[in-house]
Amino acid sequence: DVVLTQTPSILSATIGQSVSISCRSSQSLLDSDGNTYLYWFLQRPGQSPQRLIYLVSNLGSGVPNRFSGSGSGTDFTLKISGVEAEDLGVYYCMQATHAPLTFGSGTKLEIK
Amino acid sequence: QVQLKETGPGLVQPTQTLSITCTVSGFSLTSYYMQWVRQTPGKGLEWMGFIRSGGSTEYNSEFKSRLSISRDTSKNQVFLKMNSLKTEDTGVYYCAYGQFPNWFAYWGQGTLVTVSS
User: Strands B11-12 and B3-7, how do they pair?
Assistant: First the structure.
């Protein structure tokens, strides 16, 4: 199975600060169809995961544009440009290139 | 609008079978894949499997021998059944869907399952 390693595991930020989360894959996530099936989710306390980004860098409908995704192959990054209070929670990356789909272990964002 | 809601038994005894229903509205099961994901204290988020728009299924081999996903399109319902439950299966079970390639765009609120005698 593909292992997704997220760093850091805990991130503490002040409001307005820009932060980045890394997701590193044990295998390339470039599919034979040319797509890279790497997704980012946010799980706020007590809520279901919420999809933020799909195919590495595509912002989901309704997701604020302070969120952005980048990367290729095995290295991916989620950036929040100007953290807001509502951004606290746990961020997960997920890959759907290789079966079974797998998730990272999460990065908890705390607001100072 | 799109809604997904899981309903489950809450408490299941070890070795018994888990049955969860995901009732959807706002879209057709015959047009999209429906995914099942669970979140356990021991392993975090785990993809369990999906049922395609045409009705065929794919499972995570981790669960393949004891997991079944099916649906009733007339009732807009998708079903998850897993047998031989263990205490490690305790967690929150979610159904989710999205249009390719924007999978997992929509999630249910999840249903908590506790496996205990």
Answer: unpaired
Residue B102: its H or E element? none
Contact: B109, A99; criterion CB under 8 Å: no
Q: What is the DSSP letter of A101?
A: P
A50:B44 CB<8 A = no
Rounded CA separation B111/B94 (Å): 7
Distances from the Cα of B101 to the Cαs of A37, A53, A64, A94, B98, in angstroms? 8, 11, 20, 13, 8
Q: What is the pLDDT of residues A54-110, one digit of tens each?
A: 999 999 999 999 999 999 999 999 999 999 999 999 999 999 999 999 999 999 999
Residues from chain B that touch A102, judged by Cβ atoms under 8 A, are 47
Residue at token pair 């095995």 = A74
Q: Which two tokens stand for residue A25?
A: 């894959």
